[in-house]
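Below is how a single chain appears once it has passed through the pipeline. First comes the sequence as given, then the structure the pipeline wrote out for it. We keep one example in the README because the format questions we get most often are answered faster by looking than by reading.
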Amino acid sequence: MEKERDVPCSPKTLARRITATKSLFRWLHQYGVLVVDPADKVAQRSAISPLPTVLTPEEYDAALLAADRHRRGAKPDARPYALVYLLLTTGIKKSETLGIKLEHVELDTPNGPQIFIRYASPANRYKERKLILPDDWVPAYNEYLAQYHPTEQLFPWSPRRLEYLLEDIGNEAGLTKHLSFDMCRWTCALNDYRAGEEPDKIRQKLGVSKIQWRELHNKLKQLSGSKE
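Resulting structure:
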């Protein structure tokens, strides 16, 4: 499973394959299809993925400053700041960012500006959520609308184009790290965790299940240096 196939096999993939194989043969043995369970002595492997890379507070400020400089240039461009600040404060994923429509952004609600993260597939409805937006994101958002005039999608570009935009901002900020959607997501979660936000509220903000949250929570503890 690990080395005799012509495709790469990550530790997580190997662990899933072993689990599936052991479950299959256990079931066949339990119901009498097989006299002996050939996978009984196969050792289960638990894959522990490495800790994600996050921005330090100084790098966080540098990235936002680099993005904000585009708003103040000779040819003002609010798109980098609107995107980067949105990612760093909401923790939304790349696919969720691409799925945002203008109608999902609500600026005048009793709780302040918010964004509705929606999914087309009913299977993912549990991930849908409304997230509070920072008040100081709104001016950049309005500038962005006036400059780009999007008609349906909030960010009507390809995933690759937005990835390049993040990479450019990271380079302009002097980061040695590769600024990405995933890095922004983890940085947002870690900042909330360090600020004392309730773990379940962070889970809901990220739109993950309680099972997925176990691993994420453990990683946040490690990233924050917590010994709880």
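Residues 11-30 form the longest helix (20 residues).

See the next section for the split statistics.
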